[in-house]
């Protein structure tokens, strides 16, 4: 790598850290919805692959660092992965300790990042030797992966039954496009369908707002008042190992290791499970909440890092919930990346390592420092000046644009249809992992099972 490329990587990491520091603070910003479209645009724009990976790693770490702020300050999850921490964060908030809550969660994230990176590369290197065997059975793996994730879901029967009609809908739309001639036969529309599933809940909510009866039943609220402390001063760069107690550091390290090993499982499920396990025997509510949130935040960072890098380095196939969601564009973004030509085939192990280290270091230096030192000021600014609806509208518009680029006006209707179905399934308890696996396995399911 030459100096100019390294400078581009540092700049990309800096931009990602600043951008997703602000986005992470905004309540309710789903990781997939805010990361996947932006990453896809960078890929299609033609940036260097190693620069894109650096951007993504910095973005995911920054997002996971800052989505703890609205949880601690207002009891509102900053993203899907921070939702399990709300209950514990409210305990600390009730005792007048939102600042402690933010410091504990952010410090747990840093420990999770530090531990996850070396273990991830070791595990990826070990799995790489089996990549040829695994790639021979790609389609059945995706199908059985959908079944496996469905069985792990809370509403497993709904998830299982939904696999087949969703696959039929996806393949039916593809055959429709081939039949009317808007897409050459054999060319697969994928990206816009993926994005339709990603923002399915948003599309469903927008359609519900058009229904007068449903709209009239919605709750109306007055302006919500959120009180924040103003006397919060920290000198110098915060040390996560001093912010966490010895026991909190140990449990955060343990959950980080387990988060890497279980990269193929649902990060939300593992966060809830291990967070409760490591804190279950603690009687004091404040100590229990602090132990839980620090350990859970460490696990989420580790799960996202490993869930992205292990499939990318070892296989080149998105065989994890994270790879199927936020990191999907790194695996499959035609015509730039395909299953046979993506970052797995382009970058060397050393390039993966440098991109990860630069992204992680820049994100920690910028976002961790800012999160711990200026969390309340940032939270106040975002809550007052950056509407959640505006960000969702931006990403929704981007999805419609990419849908038009994929297959014209008809595909916008197709994406809205897939979004409606995905939104309903999501509300019924069918998680993103099942839906994304079904998207990949749709040709196999229709052509071989039906």
Give the topology string: H per helix, E per strand.
Answer: HHHHHHHHHHHHHHHHHHHHH
What fraction of residues sit in β-strands? under 5%
> Percent of residues in helical segments?
over 70%
In terms of per-residue confidence, which ranges show pLDDT below 50 for 5 or more consecutive residues?
Answer: none
Kindly name the structural category.
mainly alpha
**The biggest beta sheet, please?**
none
How far the N terminus sits from the C terminus, by CA atoms, comes to 50 Å
Radius of gyration: 21 Å
Average pLDDT confidence is 84
User: Treating each run of at least 4 consecutive H or I residues as one helix, how many helices?
Assistant: 21
Shape: globular
Protein name: Tripartite tricarboxylate transporter TctA family protein
Keywords: Membrane, Transmembrane, Transmembrane helix
Transmembrane segments: 6-26, 38-62, 68-86, 106-128, 134-151, 158-177, 189-210, 254-275, 352-376, 388-405, 411-430
Domain DUF112: 11-431
Question: How would you describe this structure to a colleague?
Answer:
It comes from Salinibacillus kushneri. The chain has about 450 residues and is mainly α. It has one domain. The protein has 21 helices and no strands. The protein has helices spanning about 5-25, 30-45, 50-65, 70-75, 85-95, 100-130, 130-135, 140-150, 155-180, 190-200, 200-210, 210-215, 240-245, 245-260, 265-280, 285-315, 320-325, 345, 350-385, 390-425, 430-450. Helix 8 packs antiparallel against helix 9 (about 155-180). It is globular, with a radius of gyration of 21 Å.
């Amino acid at each position: 790598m030459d100096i100019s490329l390294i400078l581009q990587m540092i700049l990309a990491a800096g931009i990602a850290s600043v951008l997703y520091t602000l986005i992470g603070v905004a309540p309710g910003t789903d990781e997939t919805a805010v990361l996947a479209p932006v990453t896809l645009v960078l890929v299609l724009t033609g940036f260097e692959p190693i620069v894109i990976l650096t951007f993504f790693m910095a973005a995911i770490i920054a997002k996971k660092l800052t989505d703890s702020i609205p949880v601690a300050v207002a009891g509102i999850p900053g993203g899907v992965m921070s939702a399990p921490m709300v209950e514990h964060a409210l305990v600390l908030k009730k005792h007048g300790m939102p600042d402690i809550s933010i410091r504990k969660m952010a410090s747990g994230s840093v420990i999770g990042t530090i531990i996850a990176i070396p273990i991830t590369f070791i595990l990826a290197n070990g799995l790489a030797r089996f990549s040829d065997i695994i790639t021979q059975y790609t389609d059945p793996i995706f199908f059985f992966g959908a079944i496996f994730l469905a069985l792990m879901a809370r509403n497993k029967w709904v998830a299982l039954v939904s696999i087949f009609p969703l696959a039929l809908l996806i393949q039916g739309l593809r055959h429709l496009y081939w039949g009317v001639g808007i897409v050459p036969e054999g060319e697969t529309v994928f990206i816009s369908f993926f994005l339709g599933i990603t923002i399915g809940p948003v599309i469903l909510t927008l359609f519900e707002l058009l229904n007068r009866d449903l709209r009239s039943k919605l709750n109306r609220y007055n302006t919500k008042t959120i009180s924040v402390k103003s006397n919060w001063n920290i000198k110098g760069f915060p040390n996560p190992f001093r912010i966490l107690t010895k026991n909190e550091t140990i449990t955060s390290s343990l959950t980080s290791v387990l988060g890497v090993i279980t990269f193929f499982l649902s990060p939300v499920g593992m966060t809830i499970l291990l967070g409760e396990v490591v804190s279950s025997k603690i009687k004091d509510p404040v100590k229990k909440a602090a132990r839980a949130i620090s350990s859970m935040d460490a696990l989420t960072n580790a799960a996202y890092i490993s869930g992205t890098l292990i499939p990318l380095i070892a296989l080149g196939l998105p065989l994890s919930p994270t790879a199927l969601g936020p990191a999907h564009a790194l695996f499959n973004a035609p015509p730039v990346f395909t299953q046979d030509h993506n970052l797995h085939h382009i970058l060397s192990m050393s390039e993966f390592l440098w991109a990860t280290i630069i992204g992680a270091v820049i994100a920690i230096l910028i976002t961790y420092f800012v999160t711990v030192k200026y969390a309340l000021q940032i939270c106040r600014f975002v809550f007052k000046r950056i509407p959640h609806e505006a960000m969702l509208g931006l990403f929704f518009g981007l999805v419609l644009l990419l849908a038009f680029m994929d297959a014209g006006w008809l595909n916008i209707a197709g994406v809205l249809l897939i979004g409606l179905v995905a939104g309903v399934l999501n509300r019924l308890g069918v998680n993103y992992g099942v839906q994304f696996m079904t998207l990949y396995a749709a040709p196999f399911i229709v052509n071989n099972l039906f």
